[in-house]
Amino acid sequence: MRQKFLVLGFIALLTFGFVNTLFAMKYIPADSARQDAGKNDLIGRWDISMDENGKTVPSWLEVKLSGNRTLTGYFVGVSGSARPIAKVNFNDGKFNFTIPPQWEPGERDFIIEGELSGAEIHGTLVNSEGKKYNWKGVKAPYLKRTGLLVWDKPIALFNGKDLTGWKALGKNQWVVKNGVLTSPHSGANLISEQKFTDFKLHVEFKYQKGSNSGVYLRGRYEVQIEDSSKDAHPSSVLFSGIYGYLSPSEIAALGPDQWQSFDIMIVGRMVTVIANGKTVISNQEIPGITGGALDSNEGEPGPVYIQGDHGPIEFRKIVITPIK
């Protein structure tokens, strides 16, 4: 009889444990599973369009998983470089985070709030001056390329005579002197009328001491031109860096008042930069748009765009070889 009670007791314990396990599987992980699914939907890169008083301006967000539960990321606004996000708070499909101002006026942290809506996100941004804007975003394309590269014929974007094939964003200060495309002072940026997808680009340029410019690929990704010291530690915001993302292996600048060159190849998101004959970035991925981008439509062709609002700059050759 005693053995019978022991057996029955053992069966009861097993049954109780099994029921508890089923209960836990049914109720405890359910919310957690939904939360994890939501996090997984948010993780990734997002191309964002923001409404600034009726004008559409580009932005970009990346959300990453740090460890097994914390979301972090990077954010690119209308200006400046990619800014790290210490923590993205996420709950029931909604998220928020803050970032400090960079080049913007005002002392407040930016407050970004959003929510998942199918394959899109949307929300609001309150900037460092307290102004509030609406935005919406879609998943950024991978831009993976397959197959052999076949190049078309080179195209001289600058003809050495005038601004044919270019347009200025704003009041134009660009002139052509002795076959040189010149921006004598800060003013409008210059944009090619033709748009391109994948290409090789050769540019020859000269800057004055302390000046700053850049060449934007597809109008979205800036290769930095700046009077950087050769002894400076390589940085993404210095000479030949992909602004805010990719640092060159060295500062291969020749210094101010010297003709210098970039040879750049971009295929999908992969970029190579050769500065004055030295490969300083070799087939590295550009994660997203840089500050100053014309738009966030990363899957579309875009122009070559030259920064003219950061000081004097000269170009004597701009040649592009598109992919067939």
UniProtKB/TrEMBL annotation:
GO MF entries: hydrolase activity
Residue ranges annotated for the 3-keto-alpha-glucoside-1,2-lyase/3-keto-2-hydroxy-glucal hydratase domain, each copy included: 154-320
Matches recorded under Gene3D superfamilies: Exo-inulinase, domain 1
Protein name stated in the entry: 3-keto-alpha-glucoside-1,2-lyase/3-keto-2-hydroxy-glucal hydratase domain-containing protein
Taxonomy of the source species: Bacteria, Pseudomonadati, Bacteroidota, Sphingobacteriia, Sphingobacteriales
